[in-house]
Specification:
It is found in: Cytoplasm. This protein is α/β, with parallel strands linked by helices. The protein folds into 3 domains: 114 residues, Gyrase A, domain 2, CATH 3.30.1360.120; 126 residues, tRNA modification GTPase MnmE domain 2 (Four Helix Bundle (Hemerythrin (Met), subunit A)), CATH 1.20.120.430; 149 residues, 3-Layer(aba) Sandwich (Rossmann fold). It contains 16 helices and 13 strands. The strands form 2 sheets. Strands 8-9-7-10-11-13-12 form a 7-stranded mixed beta sheet, sandwiched between helices. Helix 6 runs antiparallel to helix 8, helix 6 packs antiparallel against helix 15 and helix 8 runs antiparallel to helix 14. 37% of the residues are buried. Bound molecules: guanosine-5'-diphosphate (GDP) and zinc ion (ZN). The site of guanosine-5'-diphosphate (GDP) has 20 residues, from helix 9 and helix 12.
Length: 449
């Protein structure tokens, strides 16, 4: 990154709004030494906890608490950082923050501390993103994975791939100077073998990143089923507590199905199709259009069927409108009433499960099936949290590698595809710049030789 960081002093309340035992105001800037002494009423020793009086401009006591001073570059942002810990009440925190602003700080923008950490090379882009993902994590598995990304597990794998691409590019670009022997040279150096190995490693990283993305984004399941087949009962049973309302009266539960539950730490978003019907009502039409948009992006459709009735005509109407590629799971509910046994099978190429939501039979099998169908690997061990942006970048890189393999005998095109693959991957960590690459080439290769 060649953007030069802004060096003015920023301040913000770092703890969550509301009341808490302790609240923290954080500051970051180029030179906080003087401001730190002013706020604390005495000089602060780096990385020591000082118990101090925080006072306003008139010398009136605001609070008593701890002041910690981290001179740059050994700090989160790489700049001087000051942390003021006071009593965690909204009014006290506001007074403390106002005092910081009086002394010359300005209010930080959202994410500005992390952005400064990135600009000062304390974190790369993927790590910076994982700070937000860790804070937003909706399950323990997601939190553990975000922490792995923050610690550099994901960036590390991307960096290894980028380095291997750079090595290959150096090889290919060197041959550009000797057009008469370029292809022989590339064969001798096993350029294609190296490319194949990189592509294979890319697939491995993509696999892990997809797991991480699943943890972050969750699976999106379209729920189809007539009134009273047991949709709410099933979602409640899967969620493990009573949230949706279960009732005997057909039609009364139209969208009480909760939106989000967790399956082994993987969020499951439910897209309820209960409201999908022909209508002239404008508002309802908008809702229906939105539901169809969600359906387009879904991972799978779950058709819930009352075992006593089988698939109905209404179900078929909805099914016919689903995207062909959307995987489907047919679940026959209420087997406690039909005397059927639990079981799994297949019907018209779709997996089928028999269970009873009310009796709690077959739910583990359903959980396992749903997770299997969206490609969950079974545990978050070794998984790093990833975003759709990262998956896109990896897929783009992969596409360039595929093209590279096809055009390798046209050395200039080969070189260009490798460059584009590297560019795509580097966008994940945000570290790429053309100058970096040139420096790398010059330092390790003697072109004029
Ligand atoms: P929804 O309209 O599809 O959401 O269906 P509900 O979950 O509201 O359930 C409708 C009725 O079916 C309720 O009385 C439930 O108790 C009942 N029900 C749901 N699942 C089962 C089941 O597995 N067995 C039996 N016997 N009844 C069930
Ligand atoms: Zn319902």
């Amino acid at each position: 990154m060649s953007l030069s960081p802004r060096r003015d002093t920023i301040a913000a309340i770092a703890t969550a709004p509301g009341r808490g035992g302790v609240g923290v105001v954080r500051l970051s800037g180029a030179d906080l030494g003087a401001l730190a002494s002013q706020l604390a009423g005495k000089p602060l020793q780096p990385r020591h906890a000082h118990y101090v009086d925080f006072r306003d401009g008139g010398g009136e006591l605001i609070d008593q608490g701890l002041a910690l001073y981290f001179p740059g570059p050994r700090s989160f942002t790489g700049e001087d950082v000051l942390e003021l810990q006071g009593h965690g009440g909204p009014v006290v925190m506001q007074m403390l923050l106002r005092r910081c602003l009086e002394l010359g700080a300005r209010l930080a923008e959202p994410g500005e501390f992390t952005r400064r950490a990135f600009l000062n090379d304390k974190l790369d882009l993927a790590q910076a993103e994982s700070v937000a993902d860790l804070i937003d994590a909706g399950s323990e598995a997601a939190a553990r994975s975000a922490l792995r990304s923050l610690a550099g597990a994901f960036s590390g794998q991307i960096n290894v791939l980028v380095q291997r691409l750079i090595d290959l590019r150096m090889l290919v670009e060197a041959t550009l100077d000797f057009p008469e022997e370029d292809i022989d040279f590339l064969e001798a150096a096993d350029a294609r073998g190296k490319l194949t190995a990189i592509a294979a490693q890319l697939q491995t990283v993509l696999g892990t990143a997809r797991q991480g993305s699943l943890l972050r984004e969750g699976m999106h399941v379209v729920l189809i089923g007539q009134p009273n087949v047991g949709k709410s009962s099933l979602m409640n049973a899967l969620a493990g507590d009573e949230v949706a309302i279960v009732t005997d009266i057909a039609g009364t539960t139209r969208d009480t199905v909760r939106e989000l539950i967790q399956l082994d730490g993987v969020p499951m978003h439910i897209i309820d199709t209960a409201g999908l019907r022909e209508t002239d009502d404008t508002v309802e039409k908008i809702g229906i259009a939105r539901t169809w948009q969600a359906v387009e992006k879904a991972d799978l459709a779950l058709l819930l069927i009352d075992s006593r009735e089988g698939i109905t005509e209404h179900d078929r109407v909805i099914l016919a409108r689903l995207p062909d590629a959307l995987p489907r799971l047919h679940v026959f509910n209420k087997i406690d009433l039909t005397g059927e046994t639990l079981g799994q099978g297949e019907e018209d190429g779709h997996p089928v499960l028999r269970l009873s939501a009310k009796a709690g039979l077959g739910l583990d099998a359903l959980r396992a099936k749903l997770l299997e169908m969206v490609g969950w690997g079974g545990s978050d061990a070794g998984v790093f949290l990833a975003r759709e942006r990262h998956l896109d970048a990896i897929r783009r890189a992969d596409q360039h590698l595929v093209t590279a393999a096809a055009v390798w005998q046209q050395v200039e095109l080969f070189a260009e595809e490798l460059r584009l693959a590297q560019l795509a991957l580097s966008s994940i960590t945000g570290e790429f710049s053309a100058d970096d690459l040139l420096g790398e080439i010059f330092s390790r290769f003697c072109i004029g030789k």
